[in-house]
Specification:
It is a single chain. It contains 9 helices and 12 strands. The protein is an alpha/beta fold. It folds into 2 domains: 103 residues, Rossmann fold (3-Layer(aba) Sandwich); 177 residues, Rossmann fold. A 7-stranded parallel sheet has the order 8-7-6-9-10-11-12. It has a 5-stranded parallel sheet with strand order 2-1-3-4-5, with helices on one face. The model has no long low-confidence stretch (mean pLDDT 98). The structure holds NADPH dihydro-nicotinamide-adenine-dinucleotide phosphate and oxalic acid. Oxalic acid (OXD) binds next to loops.
């Protein structure tokens, strides 16, 4: 069995070492143009050339949860596309979203600014009940995030394509229930996959339906947000602020209006980093299962796009 690893901007050697240790019978190498045919590839942001030269792949393993970039390429039709299923990401996502929601609720930014200016002043405590959180996407990550927010006693709603049940979370599903979900949320978390249906879903209309003084936490993909729509909503006060881990162009160009914006906190696509050990363990387990002819979780439905 031959396996190639390729990830733009990532050192291949540690991944290859771990894959070799986990799959002792396999020949594992970094993919390079002209490499002989392999059975599996483990990739992040590969070039089209990789798939053009690898016609007999059994499966393509993405070293992330979102497969939107891969779905822009022509993939070998018989190859299964397999995304990471959590693999250490959901706890990080829960940390990130809870800190963003808590930071907003408790006004820690305002306290930080005040104490830097030598002011020891108290603000009137806000009630959690006035800060209901809406989580868009109740998949592997969204569910964990919704559960973590419940631990901090935020009122939590969730929205997904098909009906879901999460303890303590009021769940909405489908386009028909989208506006009611938005209208009941003040803090909005995006954890949707980027698909033709969800591209630009965070826009003037949808963000305008949040409870006044809303707060946006986008940890999914930059393509979900219509970036020009955010600024007037922040200026008018309809939105109090935003914490954005993802942008359409990463890093954003120097002239991007979000840099230094007083109501926007940016982080460089780091809310849930790929955990190498956990990912290799998961991928190796799935390769062993596929070799035994068994089904594996996390296979992307190409028609749905996630
Ligand atoms: P899942 O595929 O497990 O979950 C996706 C959820 O979105 C499901 O609940 C699904 O509904 C819902 N959904 C999909 N399309 C629609 C739609 N049109 N309308 C309503 N709901 C919809 O994904 P994960 O939770 O694993 O990951 C979510 C995304 O997070 C990834 O695609 C990726 O883009 C992003 N991500 C970002 C990271 C970062 O560092 N910033 C790290 C990891 C992931 P249903 O339940 O009905 O299928
Ligand atoms: C992912 C990511 O999709 O890191 O896993 O963005």
């Amino acid at each position: 069995m031959r396996i190639y690893y390729y990830a733009q901007g990532t050192k291949a050697a540690p991944w290859i070492e771990l894959l070799r240790a986990a799959l002792p019978g396999a020949e594992v190498a970094e993919w390079a143009p002209g490499a002989p045919p392999a059975d599996y590839v483990v990739v992040w942001a590969p070039p089209q050339q990789l798939f053009d030269e690898q016609p007999r792949l059994k499966a393509i393993f993405n070293t992330g949860a979102g497969v939107d970039a891969l779905l822009k390429l022509r993939l070998p039709p018989q190859a299964k596309l397999v995304r990471l299923d959590d693999a250490g990401m959901s706890v990080q996502m829960a940390e990130y979203v809870c800190q963003a929601a808590i930071r907003h609720l408790r006004e820690f930014d305002a306290y930080e600014q005040a104490t830097r200016q030598g002011q020891w002043t108290f603000r009137k405590p806000r009630s959690r009940e006035d800060y209901p959180v809406g989580v868009m996407g109740l998949g592997v990550l969204g569910t964990r995030v919704a559960q973590a927010l419940r631990q901090f006693e935020f009122p939590v709603r969730g929205w997904s394509r098909s009906p879901r049940q999460v303890d303590g979370v009021q769940c909405h599903a489908g386009e028909d229930q989208f506006d009611a979900f938005l209208a009941a949320s003040r803090i909005l978390v995006c954890l949707l996959p980027l698909t033709p249906q969800t591209e630009g879903i965070l826009n003037r209309r949808t963000l305008g339906r949040l409870q006044p003084g809303g707060y946006l936490i986008n940890v999914a993909r930059g393509g979900h947000l219509v970036e020009d729509d955010l600024l007037p909503l922040l200026e008018s006060g309809q939105l109090a602020g935003a914490m954005l881990d993802v942008l359409r162009q990463e890093p954003p160009p120097a002239e991007h209006p979000y840099w230094g914006h007083p109501k926007i906190v940016l982080t460089p696509h780091t809310s849930a980093r790929t955990d190498r050990e956990a990912s290799v363990a998961q991928i190796a387990g799935k390769i062993r299962a596929l070799e035994r002819g068994e089904p594996v979780p996390g296979v992307v439905d190409l028609k749905r796009g996630y």
